Amino acid sequence: MPRNNKTPLIQKIAKQAFMTFKCLKYPSNVDNTNFAEKQAELNSLVTAIRAADLKISPRESKVTSGTAEQQPPVSYMHICETEMFSMGVFLLRTGASIPLHDHPGMNGMLKVIYGKVSIRCFDKVESGHPVSAAPPRFDPPLPPNQNDSLWRTVLRSVAEYSETSGPCLLTPQRDNLHQVEAVDGPAAFLDILAPPYDPDAGRDCHYYRVLQIQVDPAGTGEKGNQDQQEEKEGKENEMWLLEVSQPEDFWCGGEPYPGPVVSV
What we know:
- Mean pLDDT is 87; it is low at 220-224.
- By secondary structure, this protein is of the alpha+beta class.
- Helix 1 (9-25) packs antiparallel against helix 2 (32-47).
- 17% of the residues lie in helices and 31% in strands.
- It has a 6-stranded mixed sheet with strand order 7-4-9-2-1-12, with helices on one face. Strands 3-8-5-6-11-10 form a 6-stranded antiparallel sheet, with no helix packed on it.
């Protein structure tokens, strides 16, 4: 009988990711229509991926080991990496989250393969420091020496994703900062970044904390009610972030990838 030469879905994804993001390696040669078509094909393949395709079994929801407190809240399974993109799987334990962080100059795709995650996405309003707008008063107050670490941002979305959802996408300009939190148990997602993180190329990972703004107890002024409402609506999604070191309660461990071998 003939041998089964069916190509694993994850191999098809890797090949399509290479073809798609190769366009971005040489921006002067990018045909926007061609890139959009390749990206749509990649999106379709990624949408179909499930944990079983990677030989990954959902983790138990509850802690069963006395040493679980020493285990990392998040683990990573490396699948492959080229100069064009990296691909792997993040596994989040029950109640775990990946803190708010960025992807400088990078595109990305996040596809849940089991469980459910909540994702908050932000965009930076300005690309450099110092910020042009005068920062508001924060609660608690921010020391003056931290003003250079402030970023004015817009909260773009808050949404939940499961294995039946399409991928969550990010670009260098859109939804580039995000926080990922496991919901109602453990979760895992396939992660594709293009190009990969590389501190030497200016693509290091930075972490952020959302700052609370002091509420004006008076809330009065000379503006009419309509003007006040329009100003409120324009700023309701504006948020200020403080760039911080990696949170002490977050670290990422490594696990072997059990799925089909991928070659690019």
